[in-house]
Amino acid sequence: MKLSTYKSKIPKNIYKEIEKRGFAELRPCQTKSINAGVFDDKNLLVCTPTASGKTLVAELAFLNAILHDKGKAVYVVPLRALASEKYKTFKKDYPNIKIAISSGDIDSADSYLERYDLIITTSEKFDSLIRHKAGWIHQVKTVIIDEIHLLNDPGRGPTLEVLITILRSTLKNLQLIGLSATIGNPEELSEWLDAKLVLDDWRPVRLDKGVYLGGEVEFR
Fold this sequence. Notes:
- The chain is α/β, with parallel strands linked by helices.
- The chain is built from seven helices and nine strands, in the order ααβαβαββαβαβαβββ.
- The strands form two sheets. Strands 3-4-2-5-6-1-7 form a seven-stranded parallel sheet, sandwiched between helices. A two-stranded antiparallel ribbon has the order 8-9.
């Protein structure tokens, strides 16, 4: 779908940012997320295949929080390496937005984050920041949780679940955006998050399934 088709549904300053990035087309999960209310501060659970465009949905959400709602956004990832990767990418793509990364010492409140609009962090670090009563937390408008299916992970799941629960009870007008390529119970999770469910099976490269036997592959 052409980006211009959704011009009336995208805030003007955000449209300019996306257009500047060179986007002329929107993928199915992106148009579905716009229609589901990403710019109306609705909670969304986006469950679509790898490389289907979920990251741009997250970008639309944090741009809306920062440029339109004049608040902060937090991007939560499971690994420090992924936090570093997202930080470098977003710094390059959005040079006019103040972006910080916080994924180190979990015994620090990192008060310097007060000066930034987008904060990229891990669930463990974000949990620590909340428990240290970081003063800027109440300025957070949108939280994006990447790989939200890790709620089922025995190691990281409990921390992530507690984090989401604390956020929802502390920040009454919070917008939550959950992203996942692999989740077994999206309806149940979206109900728990009070989120609109965005499902789509579009992927940029077709995926074929087959069985290999005796040197040959038989595709279904």
